[in-house]
Amino acid sequence: MSRRPVWHQGRYRFAHAVASPNFGPRPAATGIDLLVIHAISLPPGIYGGDYVQDFFTNRLDHHAHPYFETLRDVKVSAHFYVRRGGELMQFVSCDDRAWHAGASIYAGRSNCNDFSIGIELEGLDGDTFSREQYECLIALVPMLAQQYPLKHICGHEHIAPDRKKDPGEGFSWPVLQAALGWSDEFFSVK
Ligand SMILES: [Zn+2]
To answer: Is the entire prediction scored with pTM above 0.85?
Structure first.
């Protein structure tokens, strides 16, 4: 008898795996202690297409929409992407360093990509998020916390406040916190 593990080499079995080339190794002896929540949609505010997956895998058709011209030569990724219907996709092993945070700082530590896991929600800052997306997060985050020594959870807007607004006011941190049952220290942004 054998059972496939739920986690294997930083990959979650119940996420739909799509490989992104946009990652690298984490610095040696880096504790992965920060979870960063994002929002993205392409074009912004339009949901349901495959452009985000294309963007994270460097396959975006830059002629498909005028906005996409601004993304030419931009190479980014996230570990996870949660679609409006709750579908979970994984682009990068959590053991590796995904390119989601950019120039960023958390509690005096810069380059948050080094020590964080990034979860993108299909959405837009200013919009709300679906019940299915919260349910997905509420299932995923405790699983991540079993694998990695997570100590903090915040939004992209908190670690790059001059550049980023995601996930924005439409994301309910109290809903997430209450469902997880995690104490305030995990959610403090300093
Ligand atoms: Zn972001």
So the answer is: yes
